[in-house]
């Protein structure tokens, strides 16, 4: 029993040590990705949508940025999870709001709970998706007026921008690879190998 406990403690210490190692280069690319990802969405909202008072920047995109720029190897940060999690949660949120629009104590938990189960069922679990569903039922002003358009914009369009930025910044160096998918990694290796062959 003592040996098992000591071994578990050693493994835990090692994992914590690895997670807290400071890699300034890694932090630099995470910063750039998040800056440009959120920056592009904020720029579009402030310069092109301010006249129509449309919403393009929602809070759950900030949480997504932590995953897709800061924890790129996480299963929860992969493109399927990013797009699927947000879109499905947005659909759930809007649907719940349409069924029970004025009972926030019921619509809020229903939207979040249903979105979690749907993400689990479709294997698109993405924690910020819960916030996307909650925004759909708890916001005032423009978002309730959007109805199912909320799913397309800001949710889907914003996710696509975040993903495109992630694909660019998360693959600029050999140490970073996104998405964490075997086929995509093979494709990247082939692309990196072609220039060397041409030089020879």
In short:
This protein has 200 residues and is mainly α. The chain has nine helices and no strands. The model is unreliable at 195-200 (pLDDT under 50).
Topology overview:
Blueprint: H1 2-19, H2 24-48, H3 60-70, H4 79-99, H5 104-122, H6 128-138, H7 142-146, H8 149-169, H9 182-199
Helix pairs in contact: 2-3, 2-8, 3-6, 3-8, 4-5, 4-6, 4-8, 5-6
Keywords:
HPP family protein, HPP, transmembrane, 9 helices, 200 residues, TM_HPP, membrane, mainly alpha, disordered C terminus, 74% helix
Summarize the structure in words.
The chain is an all-alpha fold. It has one domain. It has 9 helices and no strands. Helix 2 (24-48) packs antiparallel against helix 8 (149-169), helix 4 (79-99) packs antiparallel against helix 5 (104-122) and helix 5 (104-122) runs antiparallel to helix 6. The radius of gyration is 20 Å and the shape is globular. Residues 22-179 form the HPP transmembrane region domain.
């Amino acid at each position: 029993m003592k040996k098992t406990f000591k071994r578990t403690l050693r493994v835990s210490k090692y994992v914590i040590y690895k997670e807290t190692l400071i890699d300034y280069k890694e932090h630099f690319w995470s910063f750039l990705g998040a800056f440009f990802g959120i920056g592009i969405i904020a720029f579009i909202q402030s310069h092109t949508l301010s006249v129509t008072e449309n919403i393009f920047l929602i809070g759950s995109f900030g949480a997504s940025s932590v995953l897709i720029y800061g924890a790129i190897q996480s299963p929860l940060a992969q493109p399927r999870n990013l797009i699927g999690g947000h879109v499905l949660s947005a659909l759930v949120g809007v649907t719940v709001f349409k069924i029970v629009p004025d009972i926030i104590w019921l619509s809020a938990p229903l939207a979040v709970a249903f979105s979690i189960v749907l993400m689990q069922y479709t294997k698109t679990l993405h924690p910020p998706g819960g916030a996307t569903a909650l925004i759909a039922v708890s916001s005032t002003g423009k978002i309730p007026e959007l109805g199912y358009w909320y799913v397309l914009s800001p949710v889907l369009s914003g996710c696509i921008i975040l993903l495109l930025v992630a694909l660019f910044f998360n693959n600029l160096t050999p140490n970073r690879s996104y998405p964490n998918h075997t086929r995509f990694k093979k494709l990247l290796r082939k692309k990196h190998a072609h220039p060397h062959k041409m030089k020879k």
